[in-house]
Amino acid sequence: MTRPVSRSEVGRMGRRGSYRLGGLGPQGPGPARASRPLRPSFVRPEHPGTTAGWILGAVAGTVLIAGGSSIGLWFTPFVIGLATGLVMRWGGWRLLVSGPAVVIMAAAGWGLALWVPVLRGLPLGATARTIAVTAGLPAISVLAFGVALAVSVALGLAGLWLGRALTPRPARD
């Protein structure tokens, strides 16, 4: 189809025997490809790094969230979620694994930041009740803690979403 179509070819269109079917290329669908064996799994089998390294990274993320939240950096779960979203593409982790990991890191980090002052003897329960009443919620400190943990989880998942959106997908096999 590299040469221009001549007037005589246009005149032959629609007539019997003018299409030369069967002479242009190989016949049939081609050779059959070997199918890959089915490997049901929630994660891909090949991950850079060791499992202990990934668990250590999750613990470090939890400690960073707790440390940042305790010094007033309330957006730390977003930053850790963003970093997780960027790294998960490199590591080959799927959302079924990285999503719950971010939820656990964010909730455990803020939970730890809220729990440490209580261990030191600070009246955090009374402060939580006051904040809950000010926000229009019932005066239950557990509810205020639950709302705080829900906010941290939402921040972490928003960061994870943005991190996944910023990294390109790997090429398919």
Please tell me about this protein's structure.
With 173 residues, this protein is an all-alpha fold. The protein has a domain at 57-166. The protein has helices spanning 7-12, 51-70, 76-91, 95-119, 124-134, 141-166. The longest helix is centred in the C-terminal third of the chain and has 26 residues, at 141-166. The chain is elongated, with a radius of gyration of 29 Å. The relative contact order is 0.14.
Distance between the termini: 31 Å
In round numbers, the mean pLDDT is 79
Please report the number of helical segments: 6
In percent terms, what proportion of residues is strand?
A: under 5%
Low-confidence segments, ≥5 residues, pLDDT <50? Answer: none
Structural class: mainly alpha
Number of strands: 0
Q: Which word captures the global form?
A: elongated
Ordered list of secondary-structure elements with their pairings:
Elements: H1 7-12, H2 51-70, H3 76-91, H4 95-119, H5 124-134, H6 141-166
What brief labels describe this structure?
single chain; 173 residues; 60% helix; mainly alpha
Q: How do you describe this structure in short?
A:
60% of the residues lie in helices and 0% in strands.
